[in-house]
Amino acid sequence: MTNTSISTEPFSEEIARAELYGLLARLWFAPPDEALFKQFSVAVTQAPEAGGYLEAPWQALVAGMRETTVESASQEFAALFQSVGKPEVFPYGSYFLAGFMNEKPLAQLRTDLAALGLTRDDAQFETEDHIAYVFEVMRYLIAGDDAGVSNLEQQRRFFRNHVQTWVEQLCDAVDEQPAAQLWRAVAGMTRAFVVVEAQAFDLLEA
Fold this sequence. Notes:
Blueprint: H1 13-29, H2 34-42, H3 55-66, H4 70-81, H5 93-98, H6 104-115, H7 131-143, H8 152-162, H9 167-175, H10 182-205
């Protein structure tokens, strides 16, 4: 994604949301590397909110990261999302919304991204409806420094149209895979976060 300058304002709840979108995007895009494993081993020991809805899935994700190695994570990622033939799980919106890749939901997403002034990096292999890309857009809409684009209304609209419509189905698909271990925890955290975000936007619209 291009045209994405991120704000460096002091830490806030909004920045925490943006960082969680960014973390989940990273975990859905590729297996974690040694640096990310080290962050989980020393830094992320607390749940986002004690007793909150995200506490249990966050702890499961932390535990999953601490119990996994770079090699085993790479093997699991390949087993789930990469295949010479048909992958076990397609992390693309078009697949869940239309049943096939590169269908109308992707075209609509591209139209909406263009309206936001966002374009796909030509060096990226994945299409814009990959979950990692969609989450990166949400991160930018929260923490970007262009108030005309990065604002609550744009977040709400994009979330309703391009996240809430299919991401929970993706998480369910991962849960159904016997090979899923770490990504079962990633899916659990993702599902819970999407629920929390949906509830927040419900309140905004009430």
